[in-house]
Protein backbone atom coordinates (compact mmCIF):
# COMPACT_ATOMS: atom_id res chain seq x y z
CA UNK A 1 0.00 0.00 0.00
CA UNK A 2 2.84 2.36 0.91
CA UNK A 3 4.57 1.57 -2.38
CA UNK A 4 1.37 2.36 -4.28
CA UNK A 5 1.16 5.78 -2.62
CA UNK A 6 4.78 6.56 -3.50
CA UNK A 7 4.50 5.36 -7.11
CA UNK A 8 0.95 6.51 -7.79
CA UNK A 9 0.82 9.81 -5.92
CA UNK A 10 4.14 11.08 -4.55
CA UNK A 11 6.33 10.60 -7.64
CA UNK A 12 3.85 12.18 -10.09
CA UNK A 13 3.27 15.06 -7.66
CA UNK A 14 7.00 15.75 -7.35
CA UNK A 15 7.40 15.62 -11.14
CA UNK A 16 4.46 18.02 -11.53
CA UNK A 17 6.11 20.46 -9.12
CA UNK A 18 9.40 20.24 -11.02
CA UNK A 19 7.64 20.98 -14.32
CA UNK A 20 5.69 23.81 -12.66
CA UNK A 21 8.97 25.38 -11.54
CA UNK A 22 10.17 25.14 -15.13
CA UNK A 23 7.03 26.94 -16.28
CA UNK A 24 7.73 29.79 -13.86
CA UNK A 25 10.89 30.52 -15.83
CA UNK A 26 9.20 30.53 -19.25
CA UNK A 27 7.30 33.14 -21.21
CA UNK A 28 5.74 33.10 -24.70
CA UNK A 29 8.84 35.02 -25.82
CA UNK A 30 10.92 31.89 -25.17
CA UNK A 31 8.87 30.05 -27.79
CA UNK A 32 8.91 33.02 -30.17
CA UNK A 33 12.69 33.10 -29.93
CA UNK A 34 12.74 29.68 -31.59
CA UNK A 35 11.28 31.19 -34.76
CA UNK A 36 14.23 33.57 -34.93
CA UNK A 37 16.79 30.76 -34.55
CA UNK A 38 15.19 27.68 -36.14
CA UNK A 39 18.48 26.09 -37.20
CA UNK A 40 19.69 25.71 -33.61
CA UNK A 41 16.35 24.20 -32.61
CA UNK A 42 16.29 21.78 -35.55
CA UNK A 43 19.81 20.55 -34.81
CA UNK A 44 18.84 20.10 -31.17
CA UNK A 45 15.72 18.15 -32.15
CA UNK A 46 17.80 15.91 -34.41
CA UNK A 47 20.28 15.17 -31.62
CA UNK A 48 17.71 14.68 -28.88
CA UNK A 49 14.86 12.89 -30.62
CA UNK A 50 16.77 10.93 -33.28
CA UNK A 51 20.44 10.50 -32.39
CA UNK A 52 19.93 9.91 -28.65
CA UNK A 53 17.52 6.93 -29.02
CA UNK A 54 19.62 5.52 -31.87
CA UNK A 55 22.90 5.83 -29.95
CA UNK A 56 21.26 4.30 -26.89
CA UNK A 57 19.92 1.39 -28.95
CA UNK A 58 23.32 0.88 -30.60
CA UNK A 59 25.04 0.75 -27.20
CA UNK A 60 22.42 -1.69 -25.90
CA UNK A 61 23.05 -4.00 -28.86
CA UNK A 62 26.83 -3.63 -28.56
CA UNK A 63 27.00 -4.34 -24.84
CA UNK A 64 24.29 -7.00 -24.99
CA UNK A 65 21.94 -5.42 -22.47
CA UNK A 66 18.53 -7.13 -22.36
CA UNK A 67 15.20 -7.18 -20.53
CA UNK A 68 14.16 -4.54 -18.03
CA UNK A 69 17.47 -2.67 -18.06
CA UNK A 70 17.40 -2.32 -21.85
CA UNK A 71 13.84 -1.00 -21.69
CA UNK A 72 14.80 1.31 -18.79
CA UNK A 73 17.58 2.96 -20.76
CA UNK A 74 15.30 3.36 -23.80
CA UNK A 75 12.71 5.03 -21.55
CA UNK A 76 15.43 7.38 -20.34
CA UNK A 77 16.54 8.14 -23.91
CA UNK A 78 12.95 8.94 -24.85
CA UNK A 79 12.50 11.47 -22.03
CA UNK A 80 12.90 15.22 -22.60
CA UNK A 81 15.97 17.12 -21.52
CA UNK A 82 16.22 17.72 -17.79
CA UNK A 83 15.49 21.14 -16.30
CA UNK A 84 18.94 21.17 -14.69
CA UNK A 85 20.41 21.43 -18.19
CA UNK A 86 19.60 25.13 -17.96
CA UNK A 87 21.84 25.43 -14.89
CA UNK A 88 24.67 23.52 -16.58
CA UNK A 89 24.29 25.75 -19.64
CA UNK A 90 24.65 28.80 -17.40
CA UNK A 91 27.78 27.34 -15.76
CA UNK A 92 29.25 26.60 -19.21
CA UNK A 93 28.47 30.15 -20.39
CA UNK A 94 26.26 28.74 -23.11
CA UNK A 95 23.09 30.16 -24.65
CA UNK A 96 20.66 30.06 -21.73
CA UNK A 97 17.79 31.47 -23.80
CA UNK A 98 18.23 28.63 -26.30
CA UNK A 99 18.37 26.12 -23.42
CA UNK A 100 15.10 27.39 -21.96
CA UNK A 101 13.38 27.34 -25.34
CA UNK A 102 14.67 23.88 -26.18
CA UNK A 103 13.62 22.48 -22.79
CA UNK A 104 10.12 23.84 -23.25
CA UNK A 105 9.68 22.54 -26.80
CA UNK A 106 11.21 19.15 -25.97
CA UNK A 107 8.82 18.74 -23.03
CA UNK A 108 5.85 19.30 -25.35
CA UNK A 109 7.07 17.04 -28.17
CA UNK A 110 7.85 14.26 -25.68
CA UNK A 111 4.12 13.89 -25.03
CA UNK A 112 3.89 12.35 -28.51
CA UNK A 113 7.29 10.68 -28.99
CA UNK A 114 7.91 9.01 -25.62
CA UNK A 115 4.90 6.64 -25.67
CA UNK A 116 5.85 5.41 -29.14
CA UNK A 117 9.45 4.68 -28.17
CA UNK A 118 8.44 3.04 -24.88
CA UNK A 119 5.82 0.83 -26.57
CA UNK A 120 8.37 -0.28 -29.19
CA UNK A 121 11.03 -0.94 -26.53
CA UNK A 122 8.67 -3.06 -24.45
CA UNK A 123 7.73 -5.11 -27.48
CA UNK A 124 11.33 -5.49 -28.65
CA UNK A 125 13.04 -6.22 -25.34
CA UNK A 126 10.29 -7.50 -23.04
CA UNK A 127 7.84 -9.28 -25.34
CA UNK A 128 4.67 -8.11 -27.04
CA UNK A 129 2.42 -9.34 -24.21
CA UNK A 130 3.64 -6.63 -21.87
CA UNK A 131 3.51 -3.96 -24.55
CA UNK A 132 -0.22 -4.59 -25.03
CA UNK A 133 -0.82 -3.41 -21.47
CA UNK A 134 0.60 0.03 -22.30
CA UNK A 135 -1.74 1.76 -24.79
CA UNK A 136 0.05 4.60 -26.52
CA UNK A 137 -2.97 6.92 -26.37
CA UNK A 138 -3.44 6.46 -22.64
CA UNK A 139 0.27 7.04 -22.01
CA UNK A 140 0.16 10.24 -24.06
CA UNK A 141 -2.68 11.45 -21.83
CA UNK A 142 -0.75 10.63 -18.66
CA UNK A 143 2.40 12.33 -19.91
CA UNK A 144 0.41 15.39 -20.95
CA UNK A 145 -0.99 15.64 -17.42
CA UNK A 146 2.47 15.22 -15.88
CA UNK A 147 4.31 17.59 -18.24
CA UNK A 148 2.06 19.87 -20.24
CA UNK A 149 -0.41 20.93 -17.57
CA UNK A 150 2.15 21.87 -14.84
CA UNK A 151 4.28 23.83 -17.32
CA UNK A 152 1.18 25.68 -18.55
CA UNK A 153 0.17 26.48 -14.97
CA UNK A 154 3.65 27.78 -14.21
CA UNK A 155 3.62 30.02 -17.28
CA UNK A 156 0.14 31.25 -16.36
CA UNK A 157 1.28 32.08 -12.83
CA UNK A 158 4.21 34.04 -14.22
CA UNK A 159 1.91 35.92 -16.60
CA UNK A 160 -0.58 36.81 -13.86
CA UNK A 161 1.93 37.55 -11.09
CA UNK A 162 5.30 38.16 -12.78
CA UNK A 163 6.98 39.73 -9.75
CA UNK A 164 5.95 36.93 -7.41
CA UNK A 165 6.90 34.26 -9.98
CA UNK A 166 10.38 35.73 -10.50
CA UNK A 167 10.88 35.90 -6.75
CA UNK A 168 9.66 32.32 -6.20
CA UNK A 169 11.42 30.71 -9.19
CA UNK A 170 14.94 30.39 -7.70
CA UNK A 171 13.56 28.79 -4.52
CA UNK A 172 11.29 26.51 -6.55
CA UNK A 173 14.23 25.43 -8.71
CA UNK A 174 16.36 24.60 -5.66
CA UNK A 175 13.47 22.74 -4.05
CA UNK A 176 12.85 20.83 -7.30
CA UNK A 177 16.52 19.79 -7.34
CA UNK A 178 16.29 18.50 -3.76
CA UNK A 179 13.11 16.60 -4.59
CA UNK A 180 14.82 15.06 -7.61
CA UNK A 181 17.70 13.86 -5.43
CA UNK A 182 15.19 12.34 -3.00
CA UNK A 183 13.48 10.51 -5.86
CA UNK A 184 16.79 9.05 -7.03
CA UNK A 185 17.76 8.02 -3.49
CA UNK A 186 14.35 6.39 -2.98
CA UNK A 187 14.70 4.47 -6.24
CA UNK A 188 18.22 3.36 -5.29
CA UNK A 189 17.11 2.24 -1.81
CA UNK A 190 14.08 0.39 -3.12
CA UNK A 191 16.12 -1.50 -5.72
CA UNK A 192 19.40 -1.69 -3.81
CA UNK A 193 20.01 -5.42 -4.31
CA UNK A 194 19.28 -5.23 -8.03
CA UNK A 195 21.40 -2.10 -8.36
CA UNK A 196 24.33 -3.51 -6.39
CA UNK A 197 24.44 -6.63 -8.52
CA UNK A 198 24.39 -4.71 -11.80
CA UNK A 199 25.94 -1.33 -10.99
CA UNK A 200 29.22 -2.06 -12.75
CA UNK A 201 27.68 -2.69 -16.15
CA UNK A 202 24.95 -0.07 -15.75
CA UNK A 203 27.39 2.65 -14.65
CA UNK A 204 29.69 1.98 -17.61
CA UNK A 205 26.71 2.12 -19.96
CA UNK A 206 25.36 5.34 -18.40
CA UNK A 207 28.73 7.12 -18.53
CA UNK A 208 29.34 6.00 -22.12
CA UNK A 209 25.89 7.17 -23.22
CA UNK A 210 26.31 10.50 -21.42
CA UNK A 211 29.73 11.27 -22.90
CA UNK A 212 28.66 10.11 -26.36
CA UNK A 213 25.67 12.46 -26.41
CA UNK A 214 27.64 15.40 -25.03
CA UNK A 215 30.02 14.92 -27.97
CA UNK A 216 27.25 14.27 -30.52
CA UNK A 217 25.28 17.38 -29.59
CA UNK A 218 28.34 19.62 -29.60
CA UNK A 219 29.83 18.27 -32.84
CA UNK A 220 26.51 18.28 -34.69
CA UNK A 221 26.04 21.93 -33.77
CA UNK A 222 29.54 22.83 -34.94
CA UNK A 223 29.00 20.97 -38.22
CA UNK A 224 25.82 23.02 -38.66
CA UNK A 225 27.96 26.14 -38.15
CA UNK A 226 26.17 27.25 -35.02
CA UNK A 227 27.90 29.58 -32.59
CA UNK A 228 30.18 28.29 -29.86
CA UNK A 229 27.62 29.14 -27.18
CA UNK A 230 24.85 27.35 -29.08
CA UNK A 231 27.10 24.31 -29.63
CA UNK A 232 27.91 24.06 -25.93
CA UNK A 233 24.21 24.38 -25.15
CA UNK A 234 23.12 21.64 -27.54
CA UNK A 235 25.81 19.32 -26.22
CA UNK A 236 24.33 19.67 -22.74
CA UNK A 237 20.72 19.51 -23.95
CA UNK A 238 21.44 16.27 -25.82
CA UNK A 239 22.86 14.50 -22.80
CA UNK A 240 21.06 15.76 -19.67
CA UNK A 241 17.81 13.82 -19.39
CA UNK A 242 14.71 14.21 -17.25
CA UNK A 243 15.53 11.20 -15.09
CA UNK A 244 12.61 12.06 -12.81
CA UNK A 245 10.18 11.42 -15.64
CA UNK A 246 11.94 8.14 -16.43
CA UNK A 247 11.44 7.01 -12.82
CA UNK A 248 7.79 8.07 -12.87
CA UNK A 249 7.11 6.25 -16.16
CA UNK A 250 8.77 3.10 -14.83
CA UNK A 251 7.25 3.05 -11.34
CA UNK A 252 3.92 4.82 -11.76
CA UNK A 253 2.87 4.17 -15.36
CA UNK A 254 4.42 0.78 -16.14
CA UNK A 255 4.38 -0.44 -12.51
CA UNK A 256 7.81 -2.09 -12.78
CA UNK A 257 10.51 -0.85 -10.40
CA UNK A 258 13.26 -2.71 -12.27
CA UNK A 259 12.70 -0.36 -15.21
CA UNK A 260 13.55 2.57 -12.92
CA UNK A 261 17.07 1.39 -12.07
CA UNK A 262 18.74 2.68 -15.30
CA UNK A 263 17.09 6.07 -14.82
CA UNK A 264 18.32 6.26 -11.23
CA UNK A 265 21.89 5.39 -12.25
CA UNK A 266 21.95 7.82 -15.17
CA UNK A 267 20.23 10.52 -13.13
CA UNK A 268 23.18 10.56 -10.74
CA UNK A 269 26.09 10.00 -13.13
CA UNK A 270 24.99 12.43 -15.86
CA UNK A 271 25.87 15.38 -13.61
CA UNK A 272 29.49 14.25 -13.43
CA UNK A 273 29.89 14.28 -17.20
CA UNK A 274 27.76 17.40 -17.51
CA UNK A 275 29.82 19.40 -15.01
CA UNK A 276 33.12 18.29 -16.57
CA UNK A 277 31.79 19.29 -19.98
CA UNK A 278 30.50 22.63 -18.68
CA UNK A 279 33.74 23.66 -16.97
CA UNK A 280 35.97 22.32 -19.78
CA UNK A 281 34.11 24.33 -22.43
CA UNK A 282 33.37 27.37 -20.30
CA UNK A 283 36.30 29.34 -21.68
CA UNK A 284 35.67 27.94 -25.15
CA UNK A 285 32.11 29.31 -25.08
CA UNK A 286 33.37 32.70 -23.92
CA UNK A 287 36.04 32.99 -26.65
CA UNK A 288 35.15 35.44 -29.44
CA UNK A 289 34.00 33.97 -32.73
CA UNK A 290 36.48 34.12 -35.58
CA UNK A 291 35.48 36.79 -38.05
CA UNK A 292 35.09 35.90 -41.72
CA UNK A 293 37.98 36.91 -44.02
CA UNK A 294 35.70 39.24 -45.96
CA UNK A 295 34.85 41.14 -42.77
CA UNK A 296 38.53 41.51 -41.84
CA UNK A 297 39.36 42.86 -45.30
CA UNK A 298 36.54 45.36 -45.09
CA UNK A 299 37.78 46.58 -41.73
CA UNK A 300 41.31 47.03 -43.05
From TrEMBL:
A GO cellular component annotation in the UniProt record = membrane
**Which sequence ranges are marked TM in the entry?**
6-28, 40-60, 66-89, 96-120, 132-154, 175-193, 199-220, 232-254, 260-281
Know the name of this protein?
BASS family bile acid:Na+ symporter
Which InterPro entries does the record cross-reference, listed alphabetically?
BilAc:Na_symport/Acr3 (IPR002657), Bilac:Na_transpt (IPR004710), Na+/solute_symporter_sf (IPR038770)
Q: Does the keyword Nucleus apply?
A: no
Domain of life per record? Bacteria
* Subcellular location(s) of the protein: Membrane
**One Pfam family, short name:** SBF
Which PANTHER family does this one have?
P3 PROTEIN (PTHR10361:SF24), SODIUM-BILE ACID COTRANSPORTER (PTHR10361)
UniProt keywords, alphabetically:
Membrane, Transmembrane, Transmembrane helix
The membrane topology noted for this protein in its Swiss-Prot or TrEMBL record is: Multi-pass membrane protein
Organism, by scientific name, is Rivibacter subsaxonicus
Amino acid sequence: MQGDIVSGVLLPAILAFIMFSLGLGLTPADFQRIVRQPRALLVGMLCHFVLLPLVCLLLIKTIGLTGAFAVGFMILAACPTGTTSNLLTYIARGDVALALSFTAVASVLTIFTLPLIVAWSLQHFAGSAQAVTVPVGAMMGQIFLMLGVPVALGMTARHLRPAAALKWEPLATRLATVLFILIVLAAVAKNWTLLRENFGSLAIFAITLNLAMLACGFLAARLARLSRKQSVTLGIESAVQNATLALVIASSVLKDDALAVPGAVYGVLMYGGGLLFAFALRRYAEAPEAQPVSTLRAQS
